[in-house]
Amino acid sequence: MTSTKNTSTRSTNTRTNPRQAARVRAIRWMKGLLLAGSVAASLLGTQLLAEKDTAGIPPAIVRPSTVQEARWQQAPAGGTQELGPVPTAAAPLRPVARSRSSR
Amino acid sequence: MTQSDFYYNQMQTLPVIDEQPSLPGDPWPSHRFRAMGSEIALWLDDEEGDACVAFSRVERLFRRLEARLTRFDANSELSRLNARPERWVQVSPLLADVLGQALALAEKTGGLFDPTLLPALEAAGYTTSFERMGKKQQAVSGSPQPGRWPEVRLDPLRPAVWLPSEVRLDLGGIGKGYTAQLALDLLAAWGAALVDAGGDLVAGAPPRGLPGWPVAVAAPGGGDAPDLFHLWLAQAALATSGIDYRRWQQNGRPAHHLIDPRTGRPTTGDLVTATVLAPEATTAEGWGTASLIAGRERGLDLLLAREMAGALTTTGGKSLLTPAFAGHVVWPVL
């Protein structure tokens, strides 16, 4: 009952006061613009972040099972690229310790 | 651009040491002993000739921390904490610090590293120290239980710990890394040092005349297989987690000590080992375990996204290196 009365009052007011009706329409437009703007900004921001994430992650280097295979790979985002033969050389240093799974 | 051109372009982006210093034998005093179920080795580039004193203190340090942190002794501080769930238990600053680091790593790795997996480890048959275990284990009571690290409460000021019902802690790997880091800090008072705690390496300043300590990443399985990589290690830690060792049969099925916190069972991923190079041993240890559990794709993504230095070896025998890790490898030339 109360809400019907209120609606009717507001409707009557805008009908009787053209200046106020124009103001209400302007506010509604601004609200709409703000909503549309924030949705667009949010979508654009998400896309930019996604692009930054992809661009920020460096590619991995893939070493095959044995050096004798002499085939090395570079794995950029979205694929793996096989590379040419690798020059092999004798190990230049003699390790004193080895990292390995817990012994 | 040919494939070779591409390869040589890649080479130019990676640091290459042109001349390797020659290394005569093993020129530094060293000391070996067993602790925490592992072979511990120490090296010291000692200027004063006091290496024996330093080694003796470090060995005592390992024994002291093992007595507190082992899960295989019912009287250790950790076992006494595990036996008192659902109440606040006062703990030593040492245990609080190790647990604090473990919980921080659990949070950073999204729970892939989890210190609450003791019930799952025991359900998998790892009930006694690996040295005493037979190759075949019988089924034990209890079912696989996923990790529950978010339910553990730590008050670092009292310090005190609250464990939920049926949650018990295993601080084996991280406890060893923590101790190795403390050992290195102790040795630093005498000179440049390197600590090998069962395959987890921690290095301080480089020895005189060299860019770092000459170390390697071993091929999975060990034996006579050639090393995967050689690198100079200084002011950093290198830890490898793997399912190529600490394996056994349980009820006719192969089992190992690396539990997937999501299932509470030994991980069945596509990686054999995961090696991580980090500023501290506990970080290297935690991320090594986490990336192995995560598997090839996600493990690599986790390391790359954080620009961490890591190398993963797949069940097919390939090694996947992050650029940060490749930058430290001196052999083979990448």
Keyphrases for this structure?
heterodimer, A: 103 residues, 3-stranded antiparallel β-sheet, disordered N terminus, B: 9 helices
SSE pattern of chain B: HEEHHEHHEEEHEEEEEEEEEEHHEEHE
**CATH superfamily heading of chain B:** ApbE-like domains
Strand content of chain B: 25-35%
pLDDT averaged over residues of chain B: 86
CATH topology assignment of chain B = T-fold
Q: Point out poorly predicted stretches of chain A.
A: 1-12, 67-87
Number of helix segments of chain A?
2
Order of helices and strands of chain A: HHEEEE
Q: Give the overall silhouette of chain A.
A: rod-shaped
Quaternary structure state of the chains depicted = heterodimer
| Sequence of strands across the biggest β-sheet of chain B | 1-2-7-8-11-16-17-18
Coarse structural class of chain A: mainly alpha
Strand content of chain A: 5-15%
The gyration radius over C-alpha positions of chain A equals 34 Å
First-residue to last-residue Cα separation of chain B: 19 Å
Average of the residue pLDDT scores of chain A: 62
Shape of chain B: globular
Number of helices of chain B: 9
Q: How many distinct beta strands of chain B? A: 19
What would your notes on this structure say?
The complex is a heterodimer of chains A (103) and B (334). Chain A has a domain at 2-56. Helices cover 52% and strands 12% of the residues of chain A. Chain A is built from two helices and four strands. Chain A has a three-stranded antiparallel sheet, with no helix packed on it. The longest helix of chain A is centred in the middle third of the chain and has 39 residues, at 18-56. In chain B, α2 (51-69) runs antiparallel to α6. Mean pLDDT of chain B is 86; it is low at 1-22. β1 of chain A pairs antiparallel with β18 of chain B, so a sheet runs across the interface.
